Automatic annotation (TrEMBL):
<keyword id="KW-0521">NADP</keyword>
<dbReference type="Pfam" id="PF13561">
    <property type="entry name" value="adh_short_C2"/>
</dbReference>
<dbReference type="InterPro" id="IPR036291">
    <property type="entry name" value="NAD(P)-bd_dom_sf"/>
</dbReference>
<dbReference type="GO" id="GO:0006633">
    <property type="term" value="P:fatty acid biosynthetic process"/>
</dbReference>
<comment type="similarity">
    <text>Belongs to the short-chain dehydrogenases/reductases (SDR) family.</text>
</comment>
<protein>
    <recommendedName>
        <fullName>NAD-binding protein</fullName>
    </recommendedName>
</protein>
<dbReference type="InterPro" id="IPR020904">
    <property type="entry name" value="Sc_DH/Rdtase_CS"/>
</dbReference>
<dbReference type="GO" id="GO:0048038">
    <property type="term" value="F:quinone binding"/>
</dbReference>
<dbReference type="InterPro" id="IPR002347">
    <property type="entry name" value="SDR_fam"/>
</dbReference>
<dbReference type="GO" id="GO:0016616">
    <property type="term" value="F:oxidoreductase activity, acting on the CH-OH group of donors, NAD or NADP as acceptor"/>
</dbReference>
Length: 254
């Protein structure tokens, strides 16, 4: 059986990749977890839920929602809160990659789509998690997905990089505004992590992004990001807020 619960954590985009690893890690740490993804990923979410239940003895709840839709995000936060009696950690992880398009060829539709999920979606998650945490009055942790592309954007991913810079800006403002409520707000900015998002990307292609590739550089694993999120979500991390931390294996030194 799971040890005494550390609280309730909601992870968006949890059916695969980094989100799945974060949900597994937070459940292992002792959080009750709520798993989100878009409705067409329901079967995958059920598999992640079963894995977590087997590993920890604690059954997650599933809260389907498209994070770019505000009423769905509000409902998702409500479902997690109702299932487990509150919300202590929000991980706004869901995002989409768009690359290989120069700015001169980038359409307004693509820009809007990337921003709708990567920036507006994170905004809605921060906003509704913060409202719930403020109402509860017991502090909290809000953590968002940026990227090294949100630290230094390079060739042919103008919309993606700009959307991840937006996450950093939002994280600063949210940290400043929510500090008085005992809520910390931070972001993770992964480098190149092996996940469905990066399938097909090779280390030799990284030069296109303008990053250095240290000798013998290998893609990181989703668990390399999950361990950072585990720390940021912990009580111990109470003095860290407004930061964007980059697990990237040395491809970008900041
Ligand atoms: P992934 O594509 O493997 O998984 C993303 C998940 O988000 C998917 O399950 C997808 O269905 C879900 N999702 C997409 N749109 C959604 C929406 N509107 N509402 C709810 N869920 C939605 O990606 P990943 O590699 O696991 O990346 C996770 C996060 O980390 C993303 O924000 C990504 O931009 C960021 N990131 C990843 C890397 C990397 O190398 N993999 C590097 C930097 C940043």
């Amino acid at each position: 059986m799971a040890a005494k619960s550390l609280g309730v954590a909601l992870v968006t985009g949890a059916s695969q990749g980094i989100g799945r690893a974060i949900a597994q890690r937070l459940a292992k740490d002792g959080f009750r977890v709520a798993l989100n993804d878009i409705p067409k990923k329901e079967q995958e979410l059920k598999s992640v839920s079963s894995e977590i239940e087997q590993q920890t003895g604690s059954k997650p709840c599933i809260a389907l929602a498209d994070v770019s839709n505000e009423s769905q995000v509000e409902q998702m936060v409500g479902e997690a809160t109702k299932a487990f009696g509150g919300l202590d950690v929000m991980v706004a992880n869901a995002g989409i990659l768009h690359e290989n398009t120069k700015i001169v060829d980038l359409s307004a539709e693509t820009w809007e789509k990337v921003f709708a999920i990567n920036a507006r979606g994170v905004f809605f998650c921060y906003k509704h998690a913060a409202r719930q945490m403020i109402a509860q009055g017991r502090g909290g942790r809000i953590i968002g997905a940026a990227s090294i592309a949100g630290r230094r954007s390079g060739f042919e991913h103008g919309a993606y990089g700009a959307s991840k810079f937006a996450v950093r800006g939002l994280t600063h403002t949210a940290a400043a505004e929510l500090g008085p409520y005992g809520i910390t707000v931070n972001a993770y900015a992964p480098g190149f992590i092996a996940s469905p998002m990066t399938t097909g990307m090779t280390t030799s292609a990284l030069a296109n992004y303008g990053f250095i590739t240290p000798e013998n550089f290998k893609f990181g694993e989703p668990k390399d990001v999950a361990s950072l999120v585990s720390y940021l979500a912990s009580k111990e991390a109470h003095y860290i807020t407004g930061q964007t931390v980059s697990p990237n294996g040395g491809v970008y030194l900041n």
